[in-house]
Request: fold
Amino acid sequence: MSYKEQIDLNRIPCHVAIIMDGNGRWAKQRGRERSYGHQVGAETVHVIAEEAARLGVKYLTLYTFSIENWGRPADEVTALMGLLFESIEEETFMKNNIRFRVIGEVEKLPAKVQERLNNCIAHTAGNSGMNLVLALSYSSRWEITEAARQLAIAVQKGELTADQIDTERFACHLTTSFMPDPDLLIRTGGELRLSNYMLWQCAYSELYFCDTFWPDFREEEFFKAICDYQKRERRFGKTSEQIS
Reply:
């Protein structure tokens, strides 16, 4: 029986976050430039997005380019920006009723990329299916620091008091405030860390790590991760008896 056949469609995670790792290593194993791995990885994005939408996932957030990635070799960064510009396909989003969104320091991206992103965001705003969210020039520490700064300014202006700041109010100032926290976080490529990705939001997310490099993470690998998630008991600090 395939993993897809084992999935309980009544227990699909609402929000799946993915750290798409291994593009460069996948390409090097094949004697190719790292950019080739990113190109094939971009194809995987479309495959997984379409499958997630079909399953009924409401939010799919992909760690596409971190703030730390700006420190990579200039030619690789340039290639990544060009690939990002080329791989945003509104036709795919419209065909699958997907709404496109972005989180991160988008203003750091090249102007033509920002324009492409904004056009896609605007054109898909009326879609009512899955939200595909790209984390671009994103860092969780940056996001948390920005939220703290916004709250400090509000206190300074007398718009609220320090005693009024709680977890809910803080979360409202995060770039992810429009969506629920991830139910499932997937990381491909064999590394066992979060790499500064949605640290606040993933406090109670189920974590799934696999050795498969992102270019090879196709439908059945995704279904396998969903099946693994569905076998887990999510207690959120409570006992099994309390949640049953």
Summary: The mean pLDDT is 96. The first strand starts at residue 15 and ends at 19.
